[in-house]
Design brief:
heterodimer; A: mainly beta; four-stranded antiparallel beta sheet; 12 strands; 0% helix; B: mainly beta; 53% strand
Chain lengths: 114, 114
């Protein structure tokens, strides 16, 4: 079975400072891991995904995430926050094969202060 | 804009009623996924269709059903509605079947059951 835990329900940063959104996962198989972003009243947009290739994954809008198997973590980072980054972020896990559904974390709300 | 369209945008109905939500995937995408997002349950995978056939099933209630038509659009039918069914329902699509493919989300249908 797969599960994902987003360690912070809310993160607040100042504009221009680094962003760290934490995610731990549990998976019986080699996982695929995703980060999605949801802006208010919008659908979800894929930021990046890991599927057993390079452990450091670069995504859109300057975000990146590092897959650490030993720590079962997939934290999302960005060197410098922008006001437009304020949104809800979801960490998602799936088994690498088979028809196991995607499992979403409960989300982390990122606030960016001017 | 992801290319996935959902109608209607908002739906208000009464308990016991039946509604149909519609989704048109991106051009060329064969898979359609349905998700429910509520405050208490978070984002949950409901069901996936691939080229007209059911491919994977998640936490979908028996009162809910879905289908994918030959033109690849999909409908989610919700019947005997309860107050707890009030939620945002998202459709997503991907090119192929594997559930680890990048999924592109529509803007969602907000269902309110009174």
């Amino acid at each position: 079975a797969q599960s994902v835990t987003q360690l912070d329900s809310h993160v607040s940063v100042s504009e221009g400072t680094p962003v760290l959104l934490r995610c731990n996962y549990s998976s019986s198989y080699s996982p695929s891991l995703f980060w999605y972003v949801q802006h208010p009243n919008k659908g979800l947009q894929l930021l990046l995904k890991y599927t057993s290739a390079a452990t450091l994954v670069k995504g859109i809008n300057g975000f990146e995430a590092e897959f650490k198997k030993s720590e079962t973590s997939f934290h999302l980072t960005k060197p410098s926050a922008h006001m437009s980054d304020a949104a809800e972020y979801f960490c998602v896990v799936s088994a690498f094969s088979g028809n196991t559904p995607l499992v979403f974390g409960k989300g982390t709300r990122l606030s960016v202060i001017a | 804009d992801s290319g996935v369209t959902q109608t209607p945008k908002h739906l208000i109905t009464a308990t016991g009623q039946r509604v149909t939500l519609r989704c048109s995937p991106r051009s060329g995408d064969l898979s359609v996924y349905w998700y429910q997002q509520s405050l208490d349950q978070g984002l949950q995978f409901l069901i996936q269709y691939y080229n007209g056939e059911e491919r994977a099933k998640g936490n979908i209630l028996e009162r809910f059903s879905a289908q994918q038509f030959p033109d690849l659009h999909s409908e989610l039918n919700l019947s005997s509605l309860e107050l707890g069914d009030s939620a945002l329902y998202f459709c997503a699509s991907s090119v192929e079947g594997p559930i680890t493919d990048t999924q592109y989300f529509g803007p969602g249908t907000r269902l309110t059951v009174l």
